């Protein structure tokens, strides 16, 4: 019996083909590997999506701010429609839409002066839109955080099961030779490797994106404050920063 089992495991040891080892692993280890592979694929998809999303948001924010600071509000209004990927144009358009709606219900022209209550309502819309944009940009980060924190432990579970299988093979063969032990240990280490392969990129890019989102959130807060102050200051003089855009 020992010779037969040893010969079978010896053939597996001779190749140690990872795909063959995965195919011959227990169903529990295969399930662990499948779960880790799915997490890895999903996390890489989230990484690519989030990288492109943040890059596009940054490009559109910069383009919009250049027009907002150097051009007229009519030009800023048009630029906001063209720079739809950024959170700052969305905040501007949200404030603009709120002003137009209020003036329409009041039966006044879009560029009519605002009273204090209307200014406060637009300010609330500004901060609400800012919060919504922040949440939008934070989407899919939960997947990366979950993968980075759980994948190593899922891989470790597969490792434990693989080692238990190796001990079972030792019992069946009645020998602890390398030919008997190595394939089971190799299966266990493959589970660990897949877990780390899923966790390491997810953790690295999660930290990168969190740092980038802190910068974006700071820009959002600064712009929201700037837009609100412009609104109050210009409204006190009989107009508002959105008035000319509303009339355009």
Q: SS-based structural class?
A: mainly alpha
SS summary, helix count: 9
Please give the largest β-sheet.
none
| Assembly form of the protein | single chain
> Given the C-alpha coordinates, what overall shape results?
rod-shaped
Tally of individual domains: 1
N→C terminal distance: 89 Å
Average the pLDDT over all residues and give the rounded result: 81
- Helicity level: over 70%
Low-confidence stretches: 1-6, 243-248
**Which value, in Å, is the CA radius of gyration?**
30 Å
| Number of E-state strands | 0
Task: Please state roughly what percent of the residues sit in beta strands, choosing from under 5%, 5-15%, 15-25%, 25-35%, 35-45% or over 45%.
Answer: under 5%
What is the string of helix and strand elements? Answer: HHHHHHHHH
Question: What does it look like?
Answer:
It is built from 9 helices and no strands. The protein has 248 residues and is mostly helical. Helix 1 crosses helix 8 and helix 4 packs across helix 5 (87-106). It has one domain (2-247). The protein has helices at residues 2-15, 18-24, 27-70, 73-82, 87-106, 116-138, 141-173, 178-236, 243-247. The radius of gyration is 30 Å and the shape is rod-shaped. The longest helix is centred in the C-terminal third of the chain and has 59 residues, at 178-236.
